[in-house]
Amino acid sequence: MMLHLSNPQARRVQAASLNFNSLTNKFKLFAFCIVSQFTSFCLSEPQSGSDAFAMQTNAVKDGDHYVINGSKIWISNAAFARVFIVFVNADVTKVSE
């Protein structure tokens, strides 16, 4: 399943979603991206830049959802986006120094 989205951020969201999402959520997210055209890709952090292996933002399961702790910088389309793909570390024992 590949949609051709004109926005570079939307293409990054699409790529991330293809790898880490259920089929139902993929259809919902892609439909929303097509309508809104403003999506955001949240990877870079103040201490680690865009080094995903040194990412310190984490997610902790709390019931049926996750709580995200940390900060992101250089978020393209942040003022306009309605969809944000936030990269986090769900296993803090695997953070590289």
Word description of this protein:
With 97 residues, the protein is an alpha+beta fold. It has a single domain (8-90), classed as Butyryl-CoA Dehydrogenase, subunit A, domain 2 (Beta Barrel). Helices cover 27% and strands 19% of the residues. The chain has helices at 8-19, 23-36, and strands at 39-42, 58-62, 65-69, 83-86. Strand 2 (58-62) and strand 3 (65-69) form a beta hairpin. Helix 1 (8-19) packs antiparallel against helix 2. The termini are far apart. Residues 1-5 have low confidence and may be disordered.
Number of strands: 4
**Domain unit count:** 1
Rg from Cα = 14 Å
Shape: globular
CATH C-level class is Mainly Beta
Secondary structure: helix percent: 25-40%
Mean of pLDDT: 77
Write the H/E string, N to C: HHEEEE
Strand content: 15-25%
Strand order, biggest sheet?
A: 1-4
CATH superfamily: Butyryl-CoA Dehydrogenase, subunit A, domain 2
Quick summary of this structure?
The protein is α+β, with helices and mostly antiparallel strands. The protein is built from two helices and four strands.
Key words describing this protein structure:
single chain, 97 residues, alpha+beta, Butyryl-CoA Dehydrogenase, subunit A, domain 2, two-stranded parallel ribbon, two-stranded antiparallel sheet, 2 helices, 4 strands, 27% helix
